[in-house]
Amino acid sequence: MNLPLREIAEHARACYPQECCGLVIADAGGALSFVPIDNVAGESSASDRTKRDGYVMHPVQLFKALRAAEEASGRLAIIVHSHPDVGAYFSDEDKRKALLEPGVPWYPGVHYLVVSIRDGRVDQARLYTWDAAQRDFSQSEVFEITLE
What CATH number was assigned to the domain covering residues 5-144? Predict the structure, then answer.
């Protein structure tokens, strides 16, 4: 999988010390591109978290990105967010947000990429995938990231 890791890492750095979020869209030919989405956590009753410890994608930006992908015969491939200063793991909160109800993902076939950023430096990203047999998310790939 040829992920746009540089763009994702740059977005995570620009948002630090807050969580970043965005989408990786696959175009009709399968090429992947990153679409940053503003994190609006804590700006309304939509989240009891802050931007430092959670993310809520700006709903209008999210809708426009998904609509543009669909209109171009593309699809949502990966949902991205960062974890500032705590590592790239799929937290219980991340799992809750990814499930419509226990055992039922909101976006079947869509992966989740969690980016670790510590002291403003992106060091790793981990990809998580829904495992239907286990009815849970499992880590499928780890990417080491170095930006100069």
Answer: 3.40.140.10
